[in-house]
UniProtKB/TrEMBL annotation:
Its EC number is 2.5.1.101. This is N,N'-diacetyllegionaminic acid synthase. Residues 154-205 form the AFP-like domain. GO terms for biological process: carbohydrate biosynthetic process. Keywords: Transferase. It is an enzyme of class 2 (transferase). One of its GO terms (molecular function) is N-acylneuraminate-9-phosphate synthase activity. InterPro entries: AFP_Neu5c_C_sf (IPR036732), Aldolase_TIM (IPR013785), PseI-like (IPR051690), PseI/NeuA/B-like_N (IPR013132), SAF (IPR013974), SAF_AFP_Neu5Ac (IPR006190), SAF_PseI/NeuA/NeuB (IPR057736). It holds the Pfam family SAF.
Length: 205
């Protein structure tokens, strides 16, 4: 029976170069690399129980990805959930975290493990971060487009202006909402003649 096996390789107490050479021996071809990408994830790890925050070296996740071009993850032995969440924000697609029913039990793993309630909080946090990461494109979101008119500003009068009076930095200002001339045109309108009389806080169309 054919069965697909997904491999999660944890790289603890190791350098990137020896690990890369080991993978080269497994697959040399382009097809082999594609097969690796579909079936293998590399987990960065600090082999200590618990691992110190300052030894987590999460930026190594980027190094692993650049070196292998494979999905990367993090095997977290630190206390709490902060480092695991940070790893996801830095590109980890797999998180390994030990779970225990009681962190006070004897043995090296329990102190660095999470009890079920906190483990659930970690998973929820990861799901929220996954949503928050979005895409690499910088463009207005749908909610921003809805609020665009409210949050953007217009050129308005800072006081009463009579018809024929010149627009100046003193008699003009910028306020919300965006119902009139954009602030981008502020310097263009200075020195021009008011085509009509304006009351204070009136929008310049």
């Amino acid at each position: 029976m054919n069965r697909r096996v997904y491999v999660i390789a944890e790289i603890g107490v190791n350098h990137a170069v020896p690990s890369r050479e080991a993978f080269k021996k497994a697959y040399y071809s382009e097809a082999g690399q594609k097969l690796l990408y579909k079936n293998v994830s590399l987990l960065h790890c600090t082999t200590a129980y618990p691992a110190a925050f300052e030894e987590s070296n999460l930026r190594a996740l980027k190094t692993l990805y650049q070196c292998f071009r494979l999905p990367v993850g993090y095997s977290d032995h630190t206390l709490g959930i902060a480092v695991a969440l940070a790893a996801v924000a830095l590109g980890a697609v797999v998180i390994e975290k030990h779970i225990t029913l009681n962190r006070n039990l004897p043995g090296p793993d329990h102190k660095a493990s999470l009890e079920p309630k906190v483990f659930y909080q970690m998973v929820q946090g990861i799901r929220q971060i996954e949503k928050a990461l979005g895409s690499s494109q910088k463009k207005p979101t749908s909610s921003e487009l809805e609020n665009q008119k409210v949050v953007r500003k217009s050129i308005v009068t800072a006081g009463n202006i009579q018809k024929g009076e010149l627009f100046t930095e003193e008699n003009l200002t910028i306020k919300r909402p965006a119902e009139g001339l954009s602030p981008l045109g502020f310097w263009d309108i200075l020195g021009k003649t008011a085509p009509k009389s304006y009351q204070k806080n009136e929008v310049i169309p």
